[in-house]
Amino acid sequence: MALITITHATTFCYRASVRLGPHRLMLRPRETRDLTLTSFDLEIVPTARVDWSHDVAGNAIASASFEVTTDTLAIRSSTTVDLTAPAWPVFPIAASAASYPFVYSDHDWTDLGALSTPQYADNTGRLATWVEQFVMSRPTDTLSLLKDISNGITAQIAYEIREAEGTQGPLDTIDRGFGSCRDFAVLFADAVRTLGLGARLTSGYLYDPAGDQLGSAAAGSTHAWVEVYVPGVGWIPFDPTNRSVGSAHLIPVAVARDISQITPVIGSFQGEASDLISMDVAVRVEDQ
């Protein structure tokens, strides 16, 4: 058991007082069988009206609206979670899905829908060719195949910390030979979707008390990984950045079909783009 505190502060500074548009905040962790949320507090300056809802994936959404103008917007969440995920999880995969290829049930196939369809164009089948190198045979062990794809990404592609906004497409990451955690996640998700498996992108925080995880800053960091749906066990987390399987170091906040749907803070203001002087993000993930 690990009792963990998370602070996530985002500060926007503007050249002059601006009128803020609505902001969508995805900062409240998702509770799972391995994660219990014990406290959550959201502070916003200037004062905002906050309405809570859940999106189609069950993510908690805070919608903030503002009545006053301001030259600074500060959003800070403070969270405590109890993480009980085992370091070496055992996955009770259904016998029908133990070997790949397998067929989802009609209900699963319908419900997975677009989660089993690649999100990026691959008209020449390059990604399909790339992922085939990990399919040793047909049939082959499903979990081993997924681990091989995840591990193969970091074996072939260099990790880099990239502060710029946006995410590379899967083929861009392969061609460039480097990527951030979100680039690795997008590549892994579309690779397994190419094989007909259901996958969703996950954003959250990396818990790294030993300081040996890629993508972790000194005090903590946001992170991105993938969950793959396998009958019998359900959604299995894969973190290709760290070649890990399971939730031992992961605190999920949001899941979605597309990485752009799980940005922690999205909003607008009235004015010119140059009116935004800076956006600073500070994250701390530490034992309580």
Structure description:
This protein has 288 residues and is an alpha+beta fold. The protein folds into two domains: 107 residues, Immunoglobulin-like; 168 residues, C8orf32 fold (Roll), CATH 3.10.620.30. Helix content is 17%, strand content 42%. The chain has five helices and 16 strands. Strands 1, 2, 3, 4, 5, 15 and 16 form a seven-stranded antiparallel sheet that branches. It has a five-stranded antiparallel sheet with strand order 13-12-11-10-14, with helices on one face. A hairpin with a 5-residue loop joins strand 3 and strand 4. Helix 2 crosses helix 5, helix 3 crosses helix 5 and helix 4 crosses helix 5. The radius of gyration is 20 Å and the shape is globular.
Give a quick precis of the structure.
This protein has 2 domains: 2-83 and 263-287, Immunoglobulin-like, CATH 2.60.40; 95-262, C8orf32 fold (Roll).
Kindly report the CATH topology of the largest domain: C8orf32 fold
What overall geometry do the principal axes of the alpha carbons give?
Answer: globular
Strand content range: 35-45%
Give a quick account of the main beta sheet: strands, pairing sense, barrel closure. Answer: 7 strands, antiparallel
Quaternary structure annotation? single chain
Cα-to-Cα separation, first versus last residue: 12 Å
CATH architecture of the largest domain: Roll
Number of helices: 5
Spans where pLDDT lies below 50 across 5 or more residues: none
Order of helices and strands: EEEEEEHHEHEHEHEEEEEEE
Instruction: Please count the beta strands (DSSP E, at least 2 residues each).
Output: 16
